[in-house]
DNA sequence: TATTGTTATACTCTATAACTATA
DNA sequence: TATAGTTATAGAGTATAACAATA
């Protein structure tokens, strides 16, 4: 099962590097995906990505500075900010999605068809079964939440 | 392929939590494994685990404080310290290895035999092929090196 | 001059607590 | 009283730079 770690590690490194080349991060992509055409507030987006609201502030600061998303005042709650993805944000998100899809396709394409299906089948079974839920953890390691991983 | 991340993430969380229950960390286990009966110096161990020598100092401080390993003066180089794993260290390492092996066995055991072999075969092919080498990365993410991952 | 291990320091990333302004 | 977002701050984790002792 060390194999599993190594494969995931190398794949994540490659995806993060390729996203960085076009000026995107896995977290930024995650937030933009949840925000586009959704009319969600910062707090809602933070919950969707399992990040603290203060981490969301930092993330939004970066996205706004990069011109990829904007904070708009909510018409119904003057405390809240609705996050809107800009046209530039949409375009970059589309490019990022293509980058990720291309890598996945390339990786899976390197396997013979039978093995490819076997891999996906086994992983699906694990996710739906034995590895479905993270175990309880008193002091969880300080790392990105799964939802923010490149995917 | 998001499946791959999720499976690795959940598995790593479980292993880290179970190691913590017995007072072990993935990094500590990695260093102890490389050190036991090997007569290696701190720098050699740091290189084997792909960590900075200053990170190794911190790691050894913890292992020594916990009574799991000791710094001995090298008989041939008065600058160097040979790391020796204590009896307590050996015992805890053995327990840790058993914890990890049990989890792996349990996870793989949750798959029907055909899928199990398919999974291992596909992962092996990826590691030896498309996902063999991490891509070059200007500013690599600040995270544990693969070698220190639980395995 | 180069290397081992150490210390001091800085940087990244993330979260907790306290605050402002609303609700 | 509670909530959205912000700021200030703290902590974990890791690395870089400078240093002392030794090669």
From TrEMBL, chains A, B:
GO terms for molecular function: DNA binding; DNA-binding transcription factor activity. SMART domains: HTH_MARR. Residues 1-128 form the HTH marR-type domain. Pfam families: MarR_2. Gene3D superfamilies: Winged helix-like DNA-binding domain superfamily/Winged helix DNA-binding domain. InterPro entries: HTH_MarR-typ, MarR/SlyA-like, WH-like_DNA-bd_sf, WH_DNA-bd_sf. Keywords: DNA-binding. It comes from the Bacteria. One of its GO terms (biological process) is response to stress. PROSITE patterns: HTH_MARR_2 (PS50995). The keyword DNA-binding applies. This is Winged helix DNA-binding protein. It comes from Lentzea tibetensis.
């Amino acid at each position: 099962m060390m194999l599993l770690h190594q494969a995931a590690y190398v794949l994540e490194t490659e995806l993060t590097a390729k996203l960085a080349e076009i000026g995107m991060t896995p977290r930024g992509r995650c937030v933009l995906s949840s925000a586009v055409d959704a009319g969600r507030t910062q707090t809602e987006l933070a919950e969707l990505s399992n990040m603290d609201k203060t981490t969301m502030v930092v993330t939004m600061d970066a996205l706004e500075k990069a011109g990829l998303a904007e904070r708009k005042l909510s018409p119904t709650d003057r405390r809240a900010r609705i996050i809107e993805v800009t046209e530039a944000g949409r375009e970059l998100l589309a490019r990022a999605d293509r980058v990720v899809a291309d890598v996945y396709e390339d990786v899976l394409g390197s396997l013979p068809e039978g093995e490819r299906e076997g891999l996906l089948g086994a992983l699906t079974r694990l996710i739906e079964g034995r590895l479905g839920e993270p175990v309880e953890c008193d002091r969880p390691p300080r790392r990105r939440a799964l939802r923010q991983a490149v995917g």
